[in-house]
Write a structure and sequence with these properties.
Blueprint lengths: L9 H33 L5 H29 L7 H22 L6 H29 L6
Helix pairs in contact: 1-2, 1-3, 2-3, 2-4, 3-4
Length: about 150
């Protein structure tokens, strides 16, 4: 039972965040695919930016984040090395960044892609760097094999 929780929230909390990422990725993948189908059905390609970012960032990248949090700490490093609080913060930053970027891309020129979406793209990029730092802890704190 000592391995279930540590001071950073532990492996159990990381598994919850990883599963949450996978659920969110399934939502974005489904919504992006339905948006793409609608664009094809009505012959409207005005939402290509939203469609591609929902599928690629929301669907694929978030799935990679989830699998990374579920697999990397236990398989390649120490399960307690990753602080769950930082992983939780990264989860919210990534979702805020993507949602804001998508919303900003739907706004008119002068507000949308050139201002609001750019701001949220910076938040999303910050979350990518934070994820690299968070998941990198599993490799930094690795115990040498006996």
């Amino acid at each position: 039972m000592g391995e279930r929780v540590d001071e950073g929230g532990g492996p159990v909390q990381l598994q919850r965040i990883g599963r949450r990422y996978l659920r969110v990725s399934l939502f974005y993948l489904s919504a992006g695919s339905l948006l793409g189908l609608g664009m094809l059905a009505w012959g409207n390609d005005n939402f290509q930016f939203v469609h591609t970012h929902m599928v690629i960032v929301g669907g694929l990248l978030f799935a990679v984040y989830g699998f990374g949090l579920l697999v990397v700490p236990c398989r390649f490093g120490q399960p307690g090395a990753i602080h769950a609080g930082w992983a939780q913060g990264q989860f919210f930053l990534a979702n805020l960044g993507l949602a804001g970027m998508l919303a900003g891309s739907l706004m008119p020129v002068g507000y949308g892609l050139d201002r609001i979406a750019l701001l949220f793209a910076a938040v999303l990029s910050l979350s990518v760097v934070l994820y690299a730092w968070v998941i990198g802890a599993a490799f930094r704190d690795r115990v040498p094999p006996v």
